[in-house]
Design goal:
It is a single chain. The radius of gyration is 14 Å and the shape is globular. The chain is 41% helix and 14% strand. The strands form 2 sheets. The chain has a two-stranded parallel sheet. It has a two-stranded parallel sheet with strand order 3-4. It is α/β, with parallel strands linked by helices and 103 residues long. The N and C termini lie close together (10 Å). The chain has a single domain, classed as Rossmann fold.
Length: 103
Amino acid sequence: MIEKGPNTLSVVSYWEVVLKASKGKLIEVADPRVWWEQALVDFAATPLLLRSNHIAGLWHLPQLHQDPFDRILIAQAISEDLTLVTTDDVVSAYSAHGLRVVS
């Protein structure tokens, strides 16, 4: 799916990586700024900014997943009619709510 493209990478993922790296939870990410730029290149992706309609999408999203980062990524994907690529099995439960997901 990623090789096929086109790809987008949410700034929400960047935000989460910065927070985790600053807490020492992502030791493989020395500098999140470098990670972000390299991830965009590696995935041939364009950045997806966080917009108010994405946040509004949380209103109708059921509480199937408790991680706020994953929930906003789900809301973004639904709002933008994107397919979300994830290894998180809980995210797949949102397919009944309009999410296209590949695990």
